[in-house]
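FORM 7B: Structural annotation worksheet

SECTION A. Query
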Amino acid sequence: MTKPIETRGLALAGFLAALAGIVDAIGYLHLGGLFVSFMSGNSTQLGAAIGQGDLAESGTIAKLILLFVAGAAGGQIVATIAGARHLVWVLVTVVLLLVLAGALDAAPEPMVLAMGALNASLRRAGNIPVSLTFVTGVLVRFGQGLGDFLTGRATGTGWLRQAIPWVGLMAGVILGTVTYDWIGEAAIWLPVGLAALLAACCAAMLETD
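SECTION B. Predicted structure
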């Protein structure tokens, strides 16, 4: 049986992953094939660019990776200072960075910083680890859970909950792509609104707990 805290946490993880998916889709289309949250993909492209001797492309990708790391560090600092209210304040930080991106016509730098920081908002839903801006770990845990279920090492379908962040991310990517194709760089204001709404909801939940 899923505990209420896990249910709420997994739902929140799904929405946060959707936020990351929207931003990553906008960044991917705006940058012509580079990512603002999926650093595994950027790392592969960085290695390929270095191997091909493309120093200009290497520098562009390396800057994105460094900014993501800086954002993750900054998000962790905010979370540490905020303590029990870390989820709200990390999301407020994300909102401010995305607003800056919107003011600068979907500039990728604040988007990357925001996505790095987002990872400090939520790491677990009860006892279930969650990933927000990348899905490799999610799919590995889902596959391992499926393997345990098929071999009888685990009963029930609790392992299916691991797919929630992936579903959220995919929904966000689709929504971000459709919106970018429709209104271009102005699409960045969609995740601004979603991040602000999530921050407000989290603040409200803290007041009622």
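SECTION C. Observations
Residues 49 and 57 are 6 Å apart (CA to CA). The mean pLDDT is 90.

SECTION D. Sign-off
Analyst initials: ____
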